[in-house]
Amino acid sequence: xxxxxxxxxxxxxxxxxxxxxxxxxxxxxxxxxxxxxxxxxxxxxxxxxxxxxxxxxxxxxxxxxxxxxxxxxxxxxxxxxxxxxxxxxxxxxxxxxxxxxxx
Length: 103
Hints:
Helix content: over 70%
Distance between the termini: 114 Å
Order of helices and strands: HH
Structural class: mainly alpha
Shape: elongated
Oligomer: single chain
Strand content: under 5%
Radius of gyration: 36 Å
Number of helices: 2
Low-confidence stretches: none
Number of domains: 1
Number of strands: 0
């Protein structure tokens, strides 16, 4: 067995301490990322449930409108109807007077 040398012992202890600090830093980061991952997974589950609920409501609405024999307006058709109403009710502005031409 070898007797411990001062420089060698210091280098080994330094390596152990550096590794411990590195591990502590990385564990803190890992815990933070795990917490974010968990909250994102919960948010995803909430949004998935809300999306499924909205899809069921849309399917029910569509089935209801079909059974009544009516069709819901699409967004484009609704936009066209609203624009036509706006254009029909907008006052007609007179054309601006012509500017005199320089002589």
